[in-house]
Amino acid sequence: QIADLPLERRYILQAGAFRNLAAADTLKDTLTRLTGERAYVVKVDNEDLYRVRLGPVTGQPEAERLRALIIAANQGTPI
Prior knowledge:
There is one protein chain. The protein has two helices and three strands. The protein is of the alpha+beta class.
């Protein structure tokens, strides 16, 4: 039965944090081209940082694959 299948976790990778919006946008565009996944910039309230995030992606293997791809392309070390 479908109801008995475990749900896979969904992951969001944070690839960078910048004080400069243009730098965050550049990384966002690079990650979208590199991975084919949705990358976006968020500004957290009460912080002067623009965070670049990717996802959500389904399952730890996919999150790890994307993380390795980003590291191999010298685009940071996502968490």
